[in-house]
Amino acid sequence: NNPVIYAITPTYKRPVQRAELTRLSNTFRLINNFHWIIVEDSEMKTSLVANLLFRSHLNYTHLAIGTPVEWKRKLKEPKWKKPRGVKQRNKALEWLRNNKANENDEGIVYFADDDNTYSVDLFNEIRKVKGVGVWPVGLVGGLLVEKPLINSKGKVIGWNSAWRPERPFPVDMAGFAINLKLLRNHSNAEFSWDVSRGYQESAILSQVTTIDQLEPLADNCTKVYVWHTRTEEPILKAEEKLKNRGLRSDM
Ligand code: UDP
Ligand code: MN
Fold first, then answer.
1. Would you say 148 is a known binding-site residue?
2. Which residues pair with 150 in a beta bridge?
3. How does it sit in the membrane (predicted)?
């Protein structure tokens, strides 16, 4: 059996968006039995994303839901002050529950942010997930690799996390996947606004699993197949100068 991998990607408009989504779609094109659920953080779907998806040759679902203004990051406010992608991931979960409600619809759900770096090997691991699978994530939480700790019996007993290690599941969004069956059985499980920084992952995971049920993957969590990379914001100072010459460079 070859369950479908559903990758849920929240995304928002910014100068690097098309570059990020191009990189991501090129990775996803290497994966079989794959379905991309892309959810724009906006009131309406944009033609930028629609065109990119149409031309991608991928199976996809294109959704949009805006983050309420009171939850939007204000100019100059640090990134981590407000939760990101919450409404969008929940919208994708709702779509899955409404459209893949049949138990014959075998699938695994992975939350794939648009700026991370994914190895093709990661998807071979995701495909194995029966309940909830976990694996190492590179370049996150102040560490080279944040990873599950495995005991001699091959059970997950925690994480090596240094940042807020007291979290119930001190893991990054990129470090786990959930079988669709569990999300159907726990039909209220979703992300929440009302959790402090770093607790999104714990919020959803604690609704569907416990640490002793986690399935360690990626060679007993000894391999890194995903990195929490972040793209530098480009400096576009010269755009003003172009405008003054009656020219523009956006295309
Ligand atoms: N995101 C979004 N709206 C925003 C900010 C972020 O939809 O206002 C998306 C973003 O495209 C990414 C995910 O939410 O897929 C996580 O955001 P980001 O990568 O900025 O978070 P970080 O990696 O810094 O925690
Ligand atoms: Mn990111």
1. no
2. 156
3. Single-pass type II membrane protein
Within 13 Å, how many C-alpha atoms sit on residue 184's CB side? 16
Residue with tokens 């995304």: 11
- Going from the Cα of 246 to the center of ligand 2, the distance in angstroms, rounded, reads 35
Ligand 1 atom, smallest distance to 79 CA: 24
Rounded Cα distance, 43 and 68, in Å:
10
DSSP 8-state code for residue 127: T
Annotation says 103 is catalytic: no
Structure tokens at 59: 């199976």
Closest CA to 6 of 63, 76, 65, 67: 63
pTM more than 0.90? yes
Q: What is the pLDDT of residues 96-115, one digit of tens each?
A: 999 999 999 999 999 999 99
What is the complex's ipTM, to 2 decimals?
0.99
DSSP notation for 161-228: --SSTTSSS---GGGEEEEHHHHHHSTT----SSS-TT-HHHHHHHHH--GGG-EE-HHHHT---EE-
Q: Is the CB of 17 under 6 A from ligand 1?
A: no
